[in-house]
Every structure is written in structure tokens, then in C-alpha cells.
Amino acid sequence: MREHFEEFTNIMLEMLPETRDKYEKSVKDNGTVLETVIIEDVFMPSILILLNEGYDHLLLQRIFSYFEEIYSGDDKYLQGIITVAALESLGNETKILETARKFMGPKTEEQQILADIALGRLRQRMPENT
């Protein structure tokens, strides 16, 4: 489990190099890697800025393709962390979510909808084709 998160972190740091200092500070301040904190406080602010500004479509595509790859795999632990720490935050702002959905694959979108349902943001059932 932990090794998959380490791989995830390395890939995200490669895609979002501006987050490295924040990542290192988080590890130093907490004395360890706190997975949800890393995603919520280190990676998601940069992803949300990209989604809000919408100018780097290639990078957003890479990020969401990577999320789709994770959701297509069998690491339920990593999938759960990403759902809680990343996908839930996408539903906080309608504009951000609308932009994010343009880049999501079907499995990522399904998990984001389930996250919104779990949070009580969506009360209806998931569409049959999702």
C-alpha cells in the first residue's frame, strides 16, 4: 500500500514540480508522510488552480488520465485516499467540477459522483451508463 502511495507521490511531484517545497515542508512538519494531507494540502491546490484557470489542458489530461489508471487498477487503498482527498474537493465548486469532468475518464467520474453522494451533495442514483 505505502509503496503505491510513494509511486503516486513521485508521479504527482513530476507533473506538479512547483509542489515539491510544500511536500517537503509537510513531511518535515508532520514527521512523516500523511497521505490525505499531502493530497489535500500539497497537490490539490495546484490542481484546483489549473482547473480554475483552465490553461494547461495537456497537464490536466495527464493528471486525470493518471487518476483513471489508478481507478482501473486494484489498489483500493490508494483509490480510497484519492477519492476522499482529491475527488471530494472537486465538488466544492460547480465551475471547478464542470471543468474537471471534461478531463475525467468514466471510472474517475463514477468515483467523484459516489463521493458527492456520500457527502450528501447528490441524492439521486448514479446514471445507468456511468
List the helices and strands and how they pair.
Layout lengths: L1 H14 L4 H11 L4 H19 L3 H16 L3 H15 L3 H8 L4 H13 L12
Describe the structure.
This protein is mostly helical and 130 residues long. The chain is built from seven helices and no strands. The longest helix is centred in the middle third of the chain and has 19 residues. It is globular. The model has no long low-confidence stretch (mean pLDDT 91).
In short:
The chain has 130 residues and is mainly alpha-helical.
Please give a handful of descriptors for the protein shown.
130 residues; 7 helices; mainly alpha
**Average predicted local confidence, pLDDT:** 91
Alpha-carbon Rg, integer: 14 Å
Shape estimate: globular
Backbone structural class: mainly alpha
Number of strands: 0
Uncertain stretches of 5 or more adjacent residues: none
Q: Quick one: biggest sheet?
A: none
Please bin the fraction of helical residues.
Answer: over 70%
